[in-house]
Amino acid sequence: MPDQPYLLYGAYASYYTAKVRSYLRKKGIPFAERLPSDPTFREVVRPTSGNHRIPQILAPDGEVIQDSVAIVDALEEVFPNLPAHPSTACQRLFVHLMELLGSEGLVTLAWKHRWLFEENIPFITRDFGRTFQPQGDDQALMKYGQLIADRMTSYGLPAMTPDVQQALDTQYIALLDRLEAHFIDHPYLLGGHPSQADYSIMGALHAHMGRDPAGLRQLQLHGPRTFRWVEHMLTPEIQSPEWFDREVTYPADDAIPDTAMVILKWLADEFATPMVRHLHAFASACTSGAVRAGEVIDSEHDQPLLAPQAVTVNGEYHAVHRAQVYAVWLAQRFQLHWAGLSLHDRAAATPLFSAPSLVALLDAPVGLTLERRDQRFYTRAD
């Protein structure tokens, strides 16, 4: 184990930092957290990674890792105890699907819920401002926080109307209902053991909708067990007081709790459709030669969109769809795992993952295999 702690550069308002912070604490990995305003971030971390995004980890040996999934993958090799990825076929497939749907699916709900409720704006603007000036007065926090707020809201939001707000709350409460049912019987999504499935939803349930006033209110009103789960995911203890006698193991015989599958199926029903289109559009680009083997996808951007592709999914024709390469990369984790299952494991997994929205993901074309190196995406040469 390294003598010096890892340094996590992130922020409490940051969706992706929340995932990594929870992982580091549950794994017992020695770390200290720093804000992006720390001079070391500007002078060492960003130049080393070539990337401004958070979270980033500065390892004791000077290595810098950016991206919440890449950080977990790298640290799992150094700290194998309490593994974030189960080794069995069905449970690992569940976790990889949650990496996509729990993180990249819920980010849309979390982002809209943050910026489409007026009561959130003063809090989140000043919270962002503190990443620039931790000891700044309110005027400074609003000034610097507005810079981040303007960028975050520049990607296109619907109007802030009561109907839109009601729809967002309805969707959030539907998620909480399913989580509440699960946490009656289990401390984590996969029984007694924390996993990457749990860490993947911390961005939505802690950084955004567990801290912003409008989201926190709904969490406390409609998800008291989930609220406690979020609190516990921020502590290093594995067994909470409510579950002090629950064995810290993944379920036996590669089982997945029924209530966890209900959550996964709901996430797929709500968020899988654009992911499936990304996969079809990426495969189409590979077939047409727009994406070629052994080449960088985009040398200038770390999370590129591909040129528009026409795709047909479930009989619906879409003349223009731009694949998000980052989402495709995440999806390939479960696609490649699924493709590599033995006949026996495939037979065991098929009934569990038989919901149409999950089948659409599992049956989507793979295209060329993506690799992430030096903050850029490449296609594998072989």
Describe this protein's structure.
This protein is an alpha+beta fold and 382 residues long. Among the domains are: 6-78, 3-Layer(aba) Sandwich (Glutaredoxin), CATH 3.40.30; 117-156, no CATH class; 272-379, no CATH class. It has helices at 15-27, 39-49, 68-78, 89-115, 121-132, 138-152, 162-183, 196-200, 202-208, 213-222, 224-233, 258-288, 325-339, 343-352, 356-362, and strands at residues 6-9, 31-34, 56-58, 64-66, 309-313, 316-321, 370-373, 376-379. The strands form 3 sheets. It has a 4-stranded mixed β-sheet with strand order 2-1-3-4, sandwiched between helices. It has a two-stranded antiparallel ribbon with strand order 5-6. Strand 1, helix 1 (15-27) and strand 2 (31-34) form a beta-alpha-beta unit. The radius of gyration is 20 Å and the shape is globular. The model has no long low-confidence stretch (mean pLDDT 95).
Short synopsis of the structure:
With 382 residues, the protein is α+β, with helices and mostly antiparallel strands. The chain has helices at 15-27, 39-49, 68-78, 89-115, 121-132, 138-152, 162-183, 196-200, 202-208, 213-222, 224-233, 258-288, 325-339, 343-352, 356-362, and strands at 6-9, 31-34, 56-58, 64-66, 309-313, 316-321, 370-373, 376-379. Helix 4 (89-115) runs antiparallel to helix 13.
